[in-house]
Design goal:
Blueprint lengths: L1 H19 L2 H19 L7 E6 L1 H7 L6 H13 L4 E7 L19 H9 L4 E8 L17 E4 L14 E3 L3 H6 L2 E4 L12 E3 L1 E4 L2 E4 L1 H10 L4 E5 L4 E6 L2 E4 L5 E3 L11 E3 H5 L12 E6 L18 H14 L9 H22 L3 H25 L6 H57 L3 E6 L4 E4 L1 H6 L18 H16 L6 E7 L5 E13 L2 E11 L1 H47 L7 H24 L8 E3 L1 H12 L7 E6 L7 E3 L1 H17 L5 E12 L1 H6 L6 E10 L6 H5 L18 H11 L3 E7 L3 E9 L11 H7 L5 E5 L3 H13 L3 E5 L2 H10 L6 E5 L7 H11 L4 E6 L3 H4 L9 E5 L4 H12 L17
Parallel strand pairs: 1-14, 1-15, 2-3, 2-15, 3-6, 4-10, 22-24, 28-29, 28-30, 30-31, 31-32
Antiparallel strand pairs: 3-5, 7-13, 8-9, 10-11, 11-12, 16-17, 16-20, 18-19, 19-20, 21-23, 24-25, 25-27, 26-27
Length: about 950
């Protein structure tokens, strides 16, 4: 309890320090965040931003700064002539320039300001201006700038306390403000140590809002007409510009993700632009930022990655972050979670250090610190959220010495007290031992566990009957026997080390497990509980209770293997489910386009290739679902020769170049009724088994043949019934198997491979698939002579279905009923709507359950069919169907899903008024299934909406 209280005190003190956040802590936190962002920031620029710099060479060629405004107008025009999408003037032009333009820049009469305004008017040009902030005197300067068309969404729709406020405005020349496509402010927001990590994107001055220069450029480049600012309880959290969302923190600031050091973006001298020395592709379609980089022109700022970072590159970085949507983010509420995690880690460390009093505790604490840093880095790299590991690091760094020192003092006091108690009870203990010796002897000899006593050298002093039976020591002298001699070779050094440390008085765990080898060579797992044997305060040996836990270990191993396979199955099923949604759109629209293009159209070849690739992808997803047990078996008449050819093409490289694969396929092979994906899995597992049996290379033969089970065959194979079969035979010339291995070959979890090298489920899976398909599997093998697997499947006869005429196919899927489509994937929903409307149906649509119920309630007419995905947000497809049927009893239901069995539920979904359509599906499958769900197409002539909502 004292250890826990000490740990809680350390956590409380450090939490208070981080809440007060003194300057030293704030700076340390900034440094930690700089390290994380430095690790993660490096990345490629978008390629859509270029810097046109007023450098030393440009000043030498075009004159000292400030330049006449007519020269800036020429720069703007030349940049736009080179194909730039947006021009950003990263400069503040306060005073007017009423001078006359020079001869080379005089596009029209007027002052230099009018020339520059004319160059900006109607063009995608963004110009900068400035604000005064807290600490500067207020200004009543009239500002003619256009505010942002901003919608505020948040608690009470009021500006949050964290919004970036200005106390005064410094406007550019009014005519520039009117001529520019957008205006923005140039101010930065350095932190307390002077480093620039964030830039404002929105600013409030009076009752109006204005964008930063970077945001103004982004809005013009994206042609955004409106912006939406979302507030939370602490700050302005998100800004939406068109479809782009910008995550904010603190006073409406965006945390920058610096791409690298200085001159990361393309730099183009102004003189090169004016003299047409710039390649066309350097500015084509880009945002060109114009500003000074010559000595004395810019105001360098300090950044975490570079102590002097020109303003131009800060603006370029901010614009690039907006374009790629990858700026970092550290919301104000995250610090509470940092402290909460630090508190949890601190208390967990206290509990750990109270129980684990060895060097392992130091490694675990150090590993926890490393995990906090690694987790913060991973979170930042994947989501952009900046989570500081400093609180966790500080708590663990302080917790370890404090708790360790307390542990030492408590252990020392406990040891002294124990020593006194032992001394006073020594005589009594000896008396008790003498009185109970005979009783103890009987108990020890008859207990189910093995009990042994070792001396200081590790030799046995005593061993009960159970131990002697385990290791064949009955009737022999045990005094020269050492326990580690019966341990597995890999455990002997550890057992010897533990014993020697115990003899030295070091702290060693009293409970451990190891493997032992019995005289017959079989292994057994032993759980040992060891205590020291002391005489006169000296350790003279150890005594241990040993328990056989072999069966428990075997069950644990099987359970872990089953969990792993279940996890892999869930992952495979989830991936296949998502791909089914994508393939529904790809394959469906491919079919629609193919049906609408004439035969001679040049685009049909490409569309057919897309459709063929989509079908192959659909087959792969069906295989994934079969592996994960989320795909119902779909048996159909198969030609095993085709399955072998497909498997050879898919998995030929699986067996390696040193193994020769030969196929002998019977051309007269009959069809079998089985699932194609499952048959491919059978072949794949057999090939893998053959490869593992031939580590030095060899030959694998796959053979197919028709077999008749006559009386002689049935006599040799009693488990067969007379009839016609197709035999699939896989033969290798590998190591072969013993009779003992063959007897257990198809048992789940049985494997002859080393631990961790195999699951023991491959051949068990094959056995289950073959049995499910109504077949039999046999194996023949001899050591050093190879192995042959025979798979027998019943041969079936099939009839070629009669294809309906073109006129029937075109008309029988048509309809005029009303169908409500509920699908959360927009692309799938739009595809279904396009197919059904093309077939004459009236289509209503919804993205989730509540929306579907609202659409149905507002629709006055009859809804004939509900077509819904089984897995939906907010409400499952089954719940939607139940609620709609309660309101509209005559409505039919068609369920769809990328899963099969799991999504249907234990009760199933198919009933008299509901149907099921698995994903992916093509237009014809969709129309056929909709027609099947609705029933007789003759009923489709009724006008949609002819019945009331209760119909």
């Amino acid at each position: 309890m004292r250890v826990i209280l000490t740990g809680a005190a350390v956590v409380a003190v450090l939490a208070g320090i981080f809440l007060v956040r003194p300057d030293a802590v704030a700076k340390a936190d900034d440094k930690v965040c700089d390290v994380l962002t430095g690790w993660v920031s490096r990345g490629q620029p978008s390629g859509q931003v270029a810097i046109v710099e007023i450098d030393e060479a440009s000043l030498a060629e075009l004159g000292r700064w400030p330049w006449p405004r007519d020269l800036l107008a020429m720069v703007v025009r030349r940049i736009l002539d080179h194909g730039a999408a947006t021009v950003v003037l990263d400069m503040v032009l306060h005073e007017e320039d009423r001078g006359a333009p020079s001869v080379r820049t005089a596009y029209r009469a007027g002052t230099n300001d009018e020339v520059l305004a004319g160059a900006m008017s109607g063009r995608p040009v963004v110009i900068g201006y400035a604000f005064r902030f807290d600490g500067a005197p207020a200004s009543d300067t009239a500002c003619s700038l256009q505010p942002v068309p901003l919608a505020v969404v948040g608690p009470g729709e009021a500006w949050g306390s964290g919004f970036f406020h200005a106390t005064g405005a410094l406007c550019s020349v009014p005519q520039f403000s009117k001529a520019a496509a957008a205006e923005g402010f140039l101010n930065a927001a350095p932190d307390s140590d002077g480093k620039l990590r964030r830039v404002p994107v929105e600013i409030e001055y009076g009752d109006r809002q204005y964008p930063s220069l970077a945001l103004a450029a982004f809005g013009v480049y994206r042609h955004a007409s409106a912006m939406e600012l979302r507030l939370n309880a602490r700050e302005a959290a998100r800004l939406r510009v068109g479809t782009q969302e910008v995550r904010l923190e603190g006073p409406s600031c965006m945390r920058l993700r610096f791409r690298g050091g200085r001159r990361t973006f393309p730099h183009i001298p102004v003189a090169s632009v004016l003299n047409d020395r710039v390649p066309a592709e350097m500015l084509q379609g880009k945002i060109a930022i114009v500003g000074g980089s010559a000595l004395g022109l810019p105001h360098p700022v300090a950044t975490p990655l570079d102590p002097l970072f020109p303003d131009l590159e800060v603006e370029a970085t901010a614009i690039d972050n907006l374009l790629q949507g990858d700026a970092f983010h550290r919301p104000a509420g995250l610090r509470v979670w940092e402290l909460a995690l630090a508190a949890i880690a601190g208390m967990a460390a206290a509990l750990l250090l109270a129980r684990v009093r060895s060097w392992w505790s130091a490694l675990i604490v150090l590993g926890s610190v490393a995990a906090a840093w690694a987790g913060s880095t991973l979170l930042l790299a994947t989501t952009g959220v900046l989570f500081s590991p400093l609180p966790v690091t500080a708590v663990l760094a302080c917790q370890f010495p404090a708790v360790t020192l307390l542990n030492y003092l408590l252990e020392k006091r406990r040891a002294e007290r124990t020593e006194r108690q032992l001394e006073s009870a020594k005589e009594y203990t000896q008396e008790v031992v003498r009185e109970s010796e005979s009783r103890y002897q009987r108990l020890v000899e008859n207990v189910n566990d093995a009990i042994i006593v070792n001396d200081t050298e590790g030799r046995l002093v005593f061993a009960n009957r159970r131990f002697r039976e385990w290791f064949g020591l009955e009737g022999g002298d045990i005094h020269e026997v050492v326990l580690e001699d019966y341990a597995a070779p890999e455990w002997r050094a550890a057992l010897r080390d533990q014993h020697e440390r115990r003899m030295r008085g070091a702290s060693v765990p009293d409970h451990h497990e190891f493997e032992a080898i019995r005289p017959g060579g079989t292994r057994m797992w032993i759980e040992a509980r060891v205590t020291n044997v002391e005489e006169d305060g000296r350790i003279v040996g150890t005594q241990a209770a040993l328990r056989d836990v072999t069966e428990r270990k075997r069950m644990e191993t099987q359970y872990l293997q089953a969990q792993k396979m279940e996890g892999i199955g869930r992952m495979a099923g989830s991936v296949a489910h998502d791909f089914n949604n994508l393939l529904t759109v790809i394959n469906g629209y491919s079919d629609l386009l193919l049906s609408r293009l004439p035969e001679g159209d040049k685009d049909r070849t490409g569309l057919k290739e897309i459709r063929a690739a989509g079908e192959r992808a659909a087959e792969l997803t069906r295989n994934l679902l079969a592996f994960s047990r989320k795909q119902l078996a779909q048996p159909k008449a198969l030609d095993l020769n085709v399955v072998v050819a497909e498997t050879e093409k898919l998995f030929g490289r699986l067996i390696g170049e040193d193994i020769e694969l030969i196929t002998w396929l019977s051309p007269e092979l009959g069809p079998v009724m089985a699932d194609s994906g499952q048959m491919q899995q059978v072949l794949m597992n057999l090939l893998v088994n053959a490869r593992d049996a031939m580590p030095l290379g060899g030959k694998v033969i796959i053979e197919t043949k028709n077999v008749e089970a006559d009386e002689d065959f049935v006599r040799r194979h009693p488990e067969f019934e007379p009839g016609s079969y197709v035999r699939l035979r896989v033969t290798d010339n590998g190591m072969g198997m013993t009779d003992e291995v063959q007897r257990h070959l198809f048992e789940p979890f049985f494997t002859t491979k080393e631990p961790g090298k195999g699951t023991g489920l491959g051949l068990a899976t094959i056995y289950g698939i073959v049995k499910q398909s109504g077949g039999r599997i046999e194996v023949a093998s001899m050591l050093a002579e190879g192995t042959t697997f025979h798979v027998y499947l019943p041969r079936v006869t099939t009839e070629q279905p009669v294809q309906p005429g073109a006129q029937d196919a075109a008309t029988r899927w048509q309809g005029s009923e009303t169908v409500l489509v509920v699908e959360d994937q927009d692309a799938v929903r739009l595809y279904i709507r396009a197919v059904l409307e093309d077939s004459g149906y009236c289509v209503l649509q919804a993205a989730n359950g509540p929306e579907a119920l609202a659409v149905a309630e507002q629709f006055p007419g009859m809804i004939h069919l509900l077509m819904t995905d089984m897995v939906l947000p907010l409400m499952s497809g089954r719940e939607v169907a139940e609620k709609l049927k309660a309101a509209r009893p005559r409505i039919k239901v068609l369920f769809t899903s990328g899963y099969a069995k799991e999504s249907m539920g234990s009760g199933g979904i198919v009933s008299s008024d509901s149907t099921y359509l698995p994903k992916p599906f093509g237009p014809e499958e969709l129309k056929a299934k909709v027609r099947e769900a609705l029933g007789n197409p003759a009923d489709s002539g009724r006008t949609p909406g002819s019945l009331g909502a209760g119909a």
